[in-house]
Design goal:
The complex is a heterodimer. Chain A is α/β, with parallel strands linked by helices. Helices cover 32% and strands 28% of the residues of chain A. The two termini of chain A are 19 Å apart. By secondary structure, chain B is of the alpha+beta class. In chain B, strands 2-3-8-5-7-6 form a 6-stranded mixed beta barrel. Chain B has a two-stranded antiparallel ribbon with strand order 11-12. In chain B, helix 1 (2-18) crosses helix 10 and helix 2 (21-61) packs antiparallel against helix 8. Chain B starts with a helix and ends with a helix. Classes of the chains: A alpha/beta, B alpha+beta. The A-B interface holds A 50, 55-56, 75, 79-80, 82-84, 86-88, 90, 92, 94-99, 103, 107-108, 110-113, 139, 155-156 and B 3, 7, 10-11, 14-15, 17-18, 311, 313-314, 316-325, 327, 407-408, 411, 413.
């Protein structure tokens, strides 16, 4: 599904502060896998996730999705790819403050050109699935951190993405909410979704079907659970 | 394109709805003041020459003025011209005027020959048919004391207040002013070598020519000038609609008598001076207005920029999840347009329903004219467009600046 070949990512290229964060990483992700990226702070796991999810471009190497090399696409095409094929959950949920929970979830669907009525119906179903059906009209400021993260998950899954990327989705949450979010990811995977998630929390490392551990920009462990 | 526009409007509408009421009122208030500044500064500056031209048209020249050729004392073949005017469908009324220089004396004592203590000055005396003059310029309305002369009345004069020495007269000319002139009193006038005593039946006051003239009946002045051929000094014409003035002038200039007189619209008759002032004031108001537009554009720019900067991460994540950049920029652009349009709307309401009607009833009291706000629909439309473009750019540029930053920098808030 995703083929990563010899990715190198450098920051500050050509300057005195040039730093190589990813040092030649290669691996494949197969459809239906639940991959946990793990490692200490500064190991390069977020940088790797950004290359996989087309939020950034590698300095060297390539990322292929199916038969298409996507790492060289224009920003407009990458944006389209992200919209149509990927779902994102970020550490900071960053919901649009001006939109209700329902409207936030509907935003990617509207961006894809879906009619508003259909988008709202689908968004409502998605929020219902995550236990947020009674908060659809609430604005982000009226929701707790855990609830906001559930809205951001609903936003990510409502469009039925091929792959769900989660960048430390529990980092801003307390234990109870973190468990709920990880349970949701488990359910999504069980329903057949491919997931790539970062966590540095030990208790969640075994949630995936595969664990890739990084250190100093290299894969030091790649094991199936 | 339409999808992005629609999505941009979707986001903008909700952002506007969620902006605090006080913030909204504040932004709209700033835009309103900016546009009012544009309207009022131009309204007053251009209003000075415009009002002056309008007053000249209403109070003195009529819509079209026929005057004698340079170096001539009278309009040759006046009869041919008035005959044409009588048959022209463009004419509402006209007033044939005779004028001459006169020496006016007041306070001359009991005997006309005892003028030791008299005050005297020269002035233009105009011979009119009061009925025709009333129809063209409404001269009666300037008579502040007494009454207007009647048709064919002899020995009576209406005298302009600007010639008199009283508390209401500001002496700009430096010439002597006539002492002790009052309605019912008498003055001596010397016209064409003939000296005659006139009873003052009225005193006229205006900010135009009327203030410095004396009026007697046309038949009496013609008699004093020994003019039996009816050749006039000028003819003031009122057309059935002011917009026909140029057409009438063109028609008159095409007649066989065209070389016997000068035919001008009131604007042409007012001379280059007022037109030049209008051009200068127009330029000044545009300059001041542009500064206003620039300031308002910066204000909107700062508001949108601060708003966009405070939402960098939100914008970044919107981009990350695939919301098109164009839609996000459009939302900020449309917000800016909304505030600009609201400000413009509020300013137009204040301008037309408050300021314009106020100044219609209470014109600014300038020494040479009463000034009304100049209102030109085309110019206002142009000002609306300029402010909209400035407001739109002030919304578009900061949004674009933010959104074009590196995606990761936005997402991570770096």
């Amino acid at each position: 599904m995703i083929k990563v070949q010899n990715i190198i990512k450098k920051f500050g290229v050509g300057t005195e502060t040039e730093i190589e964060v990813l040092k030649g990483i290669s691996f494949d992700i197969r459809a239906g896998e639940y991959v946990i990226l793990s490692g200490k702070s500064g190991a390069g796991k977020s940088t790797l996730l950004y290359q996989l999810s087309l939020l950034d471009t590698p300095t060297e190497g390539s990322v292929n999705i199916g038969q298409v090399e996507v790492s060289n696409l224009s920003e407009a095409k990458r944006s389209r790819y992200r919209l149509e094929k990927f779902g994102f959950i970020f550490q900071s949920y960053a919901l649009n403050k001006d939109l209700t929970a329902l409207e936030n979830v509907a935003l990617p669907l509207l961006s894809m050109g879906m009619a508003r009525k259909d988008a709202y119906e689908k968004s409502k179903a998605s929020l219902d699935e995550l236990g947020m059906g009674d908060r659809v009209e609430n604005y982000p400021e009226q929701l707790s951190g855990g609830e906001q993260q559930r809205v951001s998950i609903a936003r990510a899954i409502a469009k039925e993405p091929h792959i769900l990327f989660a960048d430390e989705p529990t980092a801003s949450l307390d234990l109870a909410n973190s468990d709920q979010v990880m349970d949701i990811l488990d359910r999504l995977h069980a329903a057949g979704m491919t997931i790539v998630a970062i966590t540095h929390e030990e208790q969640y490392k075994d949630r995936g079907t595969r664990l890739i551990e990084l250190s100093d920009g290299k894969i030091i462990r790649d094991t199936d659970a | 394109m339409m999808r992005n526009l629609s999505l941009g409007w979707y986001l903008a509408k909700r952002a506007i709805a969620r902006t605090g009421t006080i913030s909204k009122i504040f932004i709209i208030f700033i835009m309103m003041l900016t546009f009012l500044n544009l309207l009022v500064v131009r309204g007053v500056l251009v209003g000075i020459p415009d009002s002056s031209l309008e007053n000249t048209r209403n109070d003195d020249t009529g819509d079209v003025l026929v005057s004698r050729n340079d170096g001539e004392l009278q309009i040759e073949n006046t009869f041919e011209i008035t005959k044409y005017l009588d048959n022209s469908p463009l004419i509402d009324n006209y007033s044939v005027r005779y004028s001459s220089s006169a020496t006016i004396e007041s306070d001359f004592g009991r005997s006309k020959k005892d003028s030791t203590n008299a005050s005297r000055r020269t002035a233009t005396v105009v011979g009119i048919n009061p009925i025709d003059e009333q129809a063209v310029t409404g001269l009666d309305r300037f008579v502040k004391e007494g009454r207007m002369i009647e048709s064919g009345e002899t020995g009576s004069v209406v005298i302009g207040q600007g010639l008199l020495d009283d508390e209401a007269t500001a002496n700009f000319t430096g010439e002597d002013l006539l002492q002790n002139v009052f309605v019912g009193g008498k003055v001596l006038m010397t016209i064409n070598g003939f000296t005659k005593e006139y009873r003052v039946v009225g005193i006229a006051s205006s900010k135009g020519q009327t203030d410095n003239r004396a009026f007697i009946s046309d038949s009496e002045l013609r008699s004093l000038l020994g003019r039996s051929n009816l050749n006039a000094s000028e003819i003031a014409i009122r057309t059935i609609d002011p917009s026909f003035d140029a057409q009438l002038v063109t028609n008159l200039r095409a007649q066989p008598f065209a070389n016997k007189a000068q035919f001008e619209t009131s604007l042409q008759a007012a001379g280059e001076f007022l037109n030049d002032i209008k051009t200068i004031f127009d330029f000044l108001s545009s300059f001041v207005g542009l500064i206003g537009v620039f300031i308002s554009a910066i204000t909107i720019f700062i508001i949108i920029f601060v708003n966009a900067v405070s939402r960098r991460q939100e914008i970044g994540i919107s981009r990350a999840i695939g919301v098109p950049q164009t839609a996000i920029i459009t939302s900020y652009f449309l917000q800016s347009i909304f505030y600009t349009l609201s400000g413009i709307g509020a300013a137009l309401v204040v301008f037309f329903f408050v300021l314009d009607s106020y100044f219609r009833n209470n014109p600014i009291d300038f020494p040479f004219t009463d000034v009304y706000l100049s209102v030109d629909s085309f110019v206002i439309l142009l000002q609306v467009l300029i402010l909209l473009v400035a407001g739109g750019l002030a919304g578009y540029i900061p949004a674009r600046m933010i959104i074009k930053q590196k995606l990761l920098s936005l997402i991570l808030g770096r």
